Amino acid sequence: MKSVYLPFFLCLLISGFSAAQESRRVDLVRAGNPKTTESGQFPGQILRGTECDTVRFPLSGEITYYYLMQPESGYVTGNNSYKDKVKAEYFGTFETGSFITGIVAEFAVAKSHSNPDVVFGIWDNTGTNGKPGVMVASASKPLNSIVSDVQYERITTVTFQEPYPVNGPYYVGVVLPENLADTVALWCRKHVEGYSGTAWDQWSDGRWFAFSDPSNWGNTMLTTMTLHPIVCKTTGISEPSDAGVAISPNPSTGVINIKRWKSSEMVSMNIYSAEGKMVYSRAFPGAVTDYNIDLGFLPRGIYYMALRDSRHNHLSKLILQ
């Protein structure tokens, strides 16, 4: 078990303990200043209650991070001398028909020596007793980019090439760099007794443990880390005429043709990035049912087009290449 001693116990330094995975005994201290509410805010519009939601963002409570005292080293929520492989968050609530397009993360620490690609992933819950099982989606980002995000107090965002359809509880995590000189650590919610923590890690031997597990940090580290899935859903429609919506070509290099239902009112068209940020918006007369638009000014990637009036609400995936 990892034993945790918070700041007012720092005088009780412990020596001569085993570093074995099965008997972690670690003194911890809350490092530096708490995260400010201004830093790391998501740039642009977050689509809560519409098509997309960045789940648990921003994280509530006082946000901080923890590092290990000597003779150990590193971070509870990142690389450490126990050589933890993955830091992950559990998400037990989900909506059938939704899909995850990417991950937002907020790092407190990032140091790069060899600039490896840092992998972010989604794990299903097919492990023993609902533990993380198979990595079902992933995307990566160079560590140097994360270092820059930390330096300028930006969030880190990755987008999956193909959205992952959610059909059960899942885990969102980051695979930690293996080189000793390459380091990352996430922000986390300050430990509070009675809080139901959702943080998990994978040990160097491949086993998964919740932070709250008696074999792991136990009830001395009840926390949630700043890992947030970007979850989107296809909104419902009120008439079967929506089935007549056609977008072509798809994939496209920029110019696309749209055919849709006829309406007695203006029909709005909003284009969203895979992160849920609105990047383009227009409205068309309802009587115009066949028209072209040029999206060649947008970067290549996955987007979502929402067409909407008071009786219809349609969302389509669009790929620009």
UniProtKB/TrEMBL annotation:
Domain (Secretion system C-terminal sorting): residue spans on this chain: 247-319
Any single Pfam family the record assigns to this protein: Por_Secre_tail
Keyword Signal: yes
Residues spanning the signal sequence: 1-20
Taxonomic lineage from the root: Bacteria, Pseudomonadati, Bacteroidota, Bacteroidia, Bacteroidales
Keywords from the named record: Signal
InterPro entries, per the entry: Secre_tail
Protein name: Protein containing Por secretion system C-terminal sorting domain
Taxonomic superkingdom: Bacteria
